[in-house]
Design a protein that fits this description.
Elements (H helix, E strand, L loop, with lengths): L1 H7 L2 H5 L7 H24 L3 H7 L1 H22 L4 H8 L2 H13 L5 H17 L13 H8 L1 H16 L6 H19 L6 H25 L5 H8 L1 H14 L5 H24 L11
Length: 290
């Protein structure tokens, strides 16, 4: 899951390398390359049975795919209507939504340490973007942008719930193919006419494969070993890592609030996982038999 967050967080630094591609065109090509990568993986893994595997996901796979498509497109649309900071702050509610839904639909007991980590991480997220939360005359529809951005944590929470309920009997990796395909189709009309250069296409292919497809497949695998609330908490690391890569790769030093807030988020996540390992019962020591 940590590796997933590292890969997801690369979008900011890679987007700095674009020459012409932007907005919906970038979203379209990224989703298309992700769909092709996941399709290739399913064919390698299942061969001629790949179409049957896709159909076997059933209603759970279709729902998960729709949630993936919302996550892939809503955030991009929100960024056209509001600032990155305001869109990011909306994502902070994802762990809370996931914890509440997992309690309601899965009966998962959320540990007190996790509730505390959720609250602490939320404070850290607000701190990270506090310098940029003021109004901006360049975004007159900022409120609508934040409303659209709120679809991302809601879809993420719903996706985690259906994954936890269905993954024991259904392989939901094909759902990522469904989601990426829907996202590509939804953004295509707004992406025309294409202006991306050859260099842009190379970077967009990189994003599709290594920033969407690979971490998406790994995320589906990792979520099997974590509670829904823990998964949602760890996803926040993407927001912590992203400004660090831009700092290292593009020389854009984050504001002090970003550094301190990110440190608080990181401390909350590390503390939660450390306490989780201490609370797990230790395996009994094997006794030698004479």
């Amino acid at each position: 899951m940590l590796f997933c967050c590292v890969l997801w967080s690369l979008s900011g630094i890679v987007s700095r390398q674009f020459e012409q591609a932007a907005g919906f065109e970038a979203a379209f090509w990224r989703s298309l390359f992700a769909a092709l990568a996941v399709a290739a993986w399913l064919i390698i893994r299942h061969g001629r049975a790949a179409p049957r595997q896709l159909a076997a996901t059933g209603a759970a796979g279709l729902f998960s795919g729709l949630m993936w498509s919302v996550m892939l497109t809503a955030f991009m649309i929100a960024l056209l209507m509001t600032t990155v900071a305001k869109a990011m702050i909306v994502l902070a509610v994802a762990p809370l939504l996931t914890a509440l839904l997992s309690r309601a639909f899965l009966g998962e007991r959320v540990a007190a340490r996790t509730w505390f980590a959720i609250a602490l991480a939320g404070i850290g997220m607000v701190w990270m973007v506090s310098d940029a939360l003021a109004g901006d005359e360049h975004y007159p529809y900022s409120a609508w942008g934040m409303l659209i951005a709120s679809a991302v944590p809601l879809a993420s929470a719903c996706n985690l719930i259906v994954m936890k309920r269905s993954q024991a009997r259904v392989d939901l990796m094909p759902a990522l193919l469904i989601g990426a395909s829907i996202s590509a189709l939804a953004t295509l009309p707004f992406a025309l006419p294409f202006v991306a250069t050859t260099r842009d296409m190379a970077w967009l292919a990189f994003l599709g494969v290594f920033q969407l497809a690979l971490p998406g497949l790994l995320f589906i695998t990792a979520a099997k070993s974590l509670s829904a609330a823990e998964s949602a908490l760890l996803i926040l690391l993407e927001v912590v890592f992203a400004p660090l890569w831009v700092w290292i790769g593009a020389g854009e030093r984050p504001a002090d609030a970003t550094l301190w807030g990110g440190s608080l988020v990181l401390s909350a996540l590390m503390g939660n996982e450390w306490l989780a390992t201490r609370s797990r019962p230790r395996a009994p020591t094997a006794q030698a038999h004479r």
